[in-house]
Design a protein that fits this description.
By secondary structure, the protein is mainly β. The chain is built from one helix and ten strands.
Length: about 130
């Protein structure tokens, strides 16, 4: 498993260049057969083949408590795809792949799953999505 924060994204948060509460922070469902994560090198959404992104949505209900970032659970409705979802990616969504900064990557034990037209709900851990 490669769960963790992207080094570049973490650096941008620590420099104050990413406002987790007020910026558009999105989640993407990733086909890991088309993307091999490198938390030390990958920086922006353009580092990921567009074919690897199955679906994406903007997070809502974002909070920062102490060093923990959290958001409301999210449901992808009636999602169909012939691709397996092998990971979940969090990123700063600037509407341009070249400037959308990668923040976090999760490929938990609950994955992969194959979308079959049913809703897919992402339930975040009680302690938050990630901690700095």
């Amino acid at each position: 498993m490669s769960n963790g924060l992207y080094i570049y994204g973490l650096s941008e948060i620590m420099k104050g260049h990413i406002d987790l509460i007020n910026a558009n922070i999105s989640i993407a469902l990733i086909d890991t057969s088309k993307y091999s994560v490198n938390l030390n090198i990958d920086q922006t959404l353009s580092d990921i083949d567009e074919d690897a992104i199955i679906a994406q949505e903007i997070l809502s209900g974002k909070t920062v408590e102490g060093s923990s970032f959290n958001a409301s659970d999210l449901t992808f409705e009636s999602l169909e795809s012939d691709q397996d979802i092998g990971a979940v990616l969090i990123f700063l969504d600037s509407e341009s792949n070249d400037t959308s900064i990668l923040i976090a990557y999760f490929d938990s034990d609950d994955l992969p799953i194959t979308p079959d037209g049913e809703d897919i709900t992402i339930n975040w851990n009680e302690s938050g999505i990630f901690e700095l």
